[in-house]
Prior knowledge:
The complex is a heterodimer of chains A (635) and B (91). Chain A is an alpha/beta fold. Chain A contains 27 helices and 8 strands. Chain A has a domain at 3-204: P-loop containing nucleotide triphosphate hydrolases (Rossmann fold, 3-Layer(aba) Sandwich), CATH 3.40.50. Chain B is globular. The termini of chain B are far apart. Classes of the chains: A alpha/beta (635), B alpha+beta (91). Chain A binds chain B through residues 9, 60-61, 63-65, 95-99, 102-103, 181-182, 184-186, 189, 199-201, 203-204, 208-209, 212-213, 216, 218, 306, 309-310, 313-314, 317, 323, 347, 418-425, and chain B through 26, 37-38, 40-46, 48-52, 54, 56-57, 59-61, 63, 65-74, 76-77.
Amino acid sequence: MNRVALIGNPNTGKTTLFNRLCGVRAKTSNFPGTTTSMRVGHHTRVDGRGWEVVDLPGVYGLSFDGPESRIVRHVLHGEDGQTKPDALVVIVDATNMSRNLILVGELLRSGTPLVVALNMTDLAARRGLSLNAAVLAARIGAEVVPIVASKGTGVAALSDAVDRLSSTQPAPAITPPPSNPDAMGEWADVVLEAAGGSLKESASDPLTERLDRFLTHPVFGTLVFLAVMGGLFWTLFALANYPMDLIEATFAYLGKLATTYLPNGPIAELLSNGIIGGIAGTIVFLPQICLLFFLISLLEDTGYLARAAFVNDRFFRRFGLPGHAFVPLLTSHACALPGIMSTRLIPSRRDRIVTILVAPFISCSARLPVYVLLTGLLFADRPWLAGPAFASCYLLGAGAAFTSAWLFGRTVFRGTPRSMVLELPTYKRPSIRTALLTAKDQGLAFLQTAGTVIVAICIVMWWLSAYPKTGPVPQAEALRSHGLVQEADAVQAQAQQANSVIGRVGRTVEPVFRPLGYDWQLSVGLMTSFLAREVFVSTMTVLAGGAGDPSQDPGVRQRIRTMTRDDGRLVFTPATCASALVFFVLAMQCLPTLAVTRREAGGVKYALLQLTYMSSVAWISAFVVFQGLRLAGVS
Amino acid sequence: MIRFELTVKDCPLAPVRLCDLEEGCAARFHEASLDAEARDLLRALGLTSSSVVRLCKSGEPCIVQVRATRIGLSKLVAGQIYVIPESRDAV
Lengths: 635, 91
């Protein structure tokens, strides 16, 4: 026995069982030639032997046209570059046997040796559901092992049963599954009744009934949803700040070490500003991403996320999105990359592509430093207005996402979203262990997919802004001769930026952004932030002539606020700040997102559409805001 | 000679749309005029011939229970599924 695949309906505890069998050392990758992720681990038995375990995507049936069912079919038959497993562990929900047996019937017909893991037997017992596992095994011709995956009960027995598959042939089934898929439901009912299972409503759960009545209520359900989301974001921003500050401080220290101990020159600059700065710029978002996925995993485990999608369906459908789009849009608040990747759970391709195209409008964590800087500049003398302005940015992004989805549904992606057919799983106590492992997996996936790109971008940006080198500037030298070293460094850095490749590019593109009120310096900020939004803050800090964190250092903020154009006017007027804020909310300024859009939507044309559409919306909106405020005398 | 007297109560009930069922009432699945994708998904969720369906919550969307599975269904889908009520009070 070399390779065992775990398979089952969604919400049957498959991932929990996988974690029990393989521990924390599982690896996440993609199925060969696909974008569907696959977790592979190794199960080691007490006697030291073991096998590779592959966690297949949750499927309701093998005959569907979706990517998950297609992969499972290819894996079962060893087709299309997939490796055929030696055996299957079919995990079934003991509280919902008649439905789960339909998949068991389909898998029995595939011919691969299998063991049935009868999960959640504790929950079934609490609901008064009983089942004779031995009779069930005799009926289907495969071993049936009762387990409670969340507690680890029965996992050793399951391992033994899988081990026996390589040495013993199971007895032929008393009730073999039919070949006609339409008859599979009746077969499942016959088998279940023979094994003493219940087909009646005794399987329904009064607690689920009561909770559903409340949580899916048009008014109460919406209030609960708003409270849950409010709690989630409060937790996200309150808790993630601590590790984020720690990461920033650590990398700032490492950068300082590099400049202190390495001789002055391009290597020290590349290491401190390019590589260390680039890695810091990526890793700083890791706590928010891990925490968001941890919280989403907990919510999903409880069964609430499906109810949230249910409650939102009516609202989403008005804008041409399905209720399923709720999770991807929620995830996009941390980062559009995992948000776009989670659109895979949307069944319809049209709905999936529309969601992918609008997801980057949702304000992600990379926009936060920009919002902090610009709202701070806009309301420097009225700080109480900065908070509402900050919240308005979130609302503007969400509004743009829904309006754009509505527009796409009436133009390039005509049609209505697919009507809802959504399983509402049983409410359960969430598994902290599963949530931690999910957060770890998603964090690593983020580092692998985005990290490499962002680090590469930061290195290139550093080079473009650092070369060609500008010689000593007379004004800086004069300041230095008076002992004003910090001021001299600031003037020298400003001159360096202005004469660098990116500075020259900024002057070239300035006419494009002039109608929005931006000069060449702000244009440079926009250019650099196109690759990664958060780079805007560091670029403006350098252009203002200094280093540091503007959110912490009022001196830096003051320098940015008093930055002047070539003609001596201020760079950041109220109208310019408002225009830039709107531009940052709406613009597509993230190269890794475009790469993921191309991959997930299945073509570069979708990435180009996203880039063109979002950039146009951002430019036009920023133009309207700037010119409107200018005409109103706010300038 | 045996005389049969049929009353309205004894007549077999006609199929009705699932969305027209009274909340909380059960019925047997009769037929569905759905696209292949939705039909396959509902079959995999347990909606097979003669299976019992209960309308747990009416409205848009509604919640139905098929066997032990609770399913959120849009009214459009529920309107394309025909069921035979278990009793006359169900409609």
